[in-house]
Amino acid sequence: MPSPQPPRAVFAMDPVHLPLLFPSPLMARLRKTSDIDPELVVRDFTDPASAAALAEAEVLITGWGCPHLDADVLAVAPKLRAVLHAAGSVRSLVGEALWKHGVTVSSAVTANALPVAEYTLAMILLAGKDTFTHRERFRTSRAYPTPAETAPTGNVGRRVGVIGASRVGRRLLELLRPFDFTVLLHDPYVSPAEAAELGAESMSLEDLLRHSDIVSLHAPDIPETYRMLDGDRLALIRDGGVLINTSRGALIDPESLTDELVSGRLHAILDVTEPEPLPVGSPLYHLPNVFLTPHIAGSLGNELERLGRTVVEELERLVAGLPPVHEVRHADLARVA
Predict the structure, then answer these.
(1) Strand 8-12 and strand 290-292: pairing?
(2) Which of 147, 135, 161, 137 is nearest to 238 (CA)?
(3) Is 326 among the catalytic positions?
(4) Catalytic residue status for 248
(5) Cα distance between residue 299 and residue 293, in whole Å
(6) Distances (CA, A) of 118 to 122, 170, 212, 253, 318
(7) Burial tier of 191 (Cβ tally within 10 Å: 0-12, 13-18, 19+)
(8) What are the backbone dihedrals phi and psi of residue 30, each rounded to the nearest 5 degrees, phi first?
(9) Can you give the C-alpha Rg of the chain in angstroms?
(10) Which long-range contacts does 99-103 make (Cβ < 8 Å, 24+ apart)?
(11) Which of the following is catalytic: 17, 248, 267, 326?
(12) Residue 139 known to be catalytic
């Protein structure tokens, strides 16, 4: 996107995110690279106050809270050439009209994968130590566990099953390497040889569920993965097994999962659920074998700056006439989040 003049860029997101995504040093880099008004953040593409800026906009810098981008956006932003998304998936953000118009789309999804993988690693290690069970016991008994109670505890030789070699899944596989785990992987697009290079043994979904102590979901939310863990597949996980979900709640049949957890047969660490959030009367809020967090695995707080930095670097590349590093291609949406 080489140009004699800096491209006109416009923010389109919920303005509450802007200060954390683009603190002063990053905002300065943006203003050096583009013609952007840091005070203008579009929430409504029909707002007359934004019309003049959008009419000249070549780049939209988007984030959480951005309206859907489709033909109506091209009508008010006819010069649009690039959408740089300072968040994760663009599946529900970018409509067909923009793809057909040839607008370049880039996403900070790779940067957003890092804290999700870190959260998952932390939960795997805590689950292997049976941390949550011991905490519940200690709160009521005020007594240290007996050797019999700690006998099943520990991370040596734990079998960790990773479902999906997504960006999060691959980063998690890297993070698991220093530990004394046996790592299993299911991903229909990954060959056994590639799985071995990633430090895992490739196997079918059913075999992974049978042989894992801890199962972690990192598959994309696409029609093929909807309810991929139904009642029959959940039943394959060994008694006392742990299920971690930081992907999407839709990948697990919620009624079957609730039945398994209410029975006490399985443990779960759930950062995402179906629905989200759970109804206030859900038993999962109170079960001792369930650890619920409110969708916090992805970028939060100071981690948002990493997403903003990704966008700034992408814009700098585009202005220099270089291709984006994190381009999202329309053809890839069928198999990625």
Answers:
(1) unpaired
(2) 161
(3) no
(4) yes
(5) 14
(6) 6, 12, 20, 25, 30
(7) exposed
(8) -65, -45
(9) 22
(10) 99/330, 101/74
(11) 248
(12) no
Q: Bridge-partner residues for 94, per DSSP?
A: 69
pLDDT one-digit tens code per residue, 260-278:
999 999 999 999 999 999 9
Give the separation between CA 281 and CA 300, rounded to whole angstroms: 27
Question: In Å, what is the CA distance from 223 to each residue of 168, 216, 334?
Answer: 19, 19, 9
Given 136, 174, 276, 327, the catalytic residue: 276
**The tokens of 245 are what?**
């979900």
Catalytic residue chosen out of the listed positions 81, 137, 238, 295:
295
Q: What local confidence, expressed as pLDDT, does residue 4 receive?
A: 66
260-275 per-residue burial string, b: 16 or more CB within 10 A, e: under 16 = bbeeebbbbbbbbbbe
pLDDT below 50 — which residues of the chain?
1-2
The pLDDT, as a whole number, for residue 334 is: 77
Q: Omega before 275 cis (within 30°)?
A: yes
Give the SS3 label for residue 166.
coil
Identify the pLDDT of residue 319: 96
Residue-level pLDDT at 335 = 78
Question: By C-alpha distance, which of 257, 303, 289 is closest to 116?
Answer: 303
Strands (E), the chain: 8-12, 35-42, 59-62, 82-85, 104-107, 159-163, 182-186, 201-202, 214-217, 242-245, 267-270, 290-292
- Give pLDDT tens digits for 208-252: 999 999 999 999 999 999 999 999 999 999 999 999 999 999 999
